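1st attempt posting a full record on here, be nice pls
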Amino acid sequence: MATGFGRLPEQPIAWSRTGNGEFPFRADHAGSELTIRVNDFPAEPLYTLLIDGRPGFDLEDWPSAWTRPLVGPEALRVAGDARAGRGRFDAIVVADWAHRLCAVAGSPAERVIAAFGLTGELVEAIGYRLLMPPPAGVDRLEISERDGSVTDLQITPTGGGPHRAELDELLGPGRDGVRVHWDSPHPVRYRVTVGAAPYACNLVAYFANPPSAGSPPTGQGPAVRLMLQRGNVELSERGPAG
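the predicted structure (as tokens):
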């Protein structure tokens, strides 16, 4: 390993995306080119850091001091479709749905479900409708409407949902919310907007464990429930079309 690079995981580094699936991130640091290689996890360490094209050291996780750029809606759509096609429900699928909810034209539940690429029957319940059967990786998916317009989706993952660090990577740092009761799950809120899309989406991920001390917060384990809530875009949030 090059001299002086042993403490790299502790140093703030802003990475850019390359578009290469095997080597997705690069950065310039201290006169050297750094590249991240994604390995065959779990048989191998998750990442390997290359320094000027040569292996430096392995990483079991992404260092908290390093910053990855957010993923755009189109990349999320492609990756989300691929994940869902393999029967997975993870942070990428959740982030993709949040972005699609902002942009979907029309408001009935049927149109939103179609925009997500989901199939199934919407079964009437008291105050909401259930998608039956739910998509792979989901135990329960409730859709609430007001005056024929979708207001929110409540999602209960099978086993466990995405971790906070995964959502932070895709959507930016979440904000800790306030629990409604002492034994309620801990909410973390994300705000999602898409260019000139007509709506915004508030994603709330609920975790059984409280956030750890430090920045960024970690250690909350998988989300036990997620809510996608559609609302109006603030004037300051409006971006250019396209």
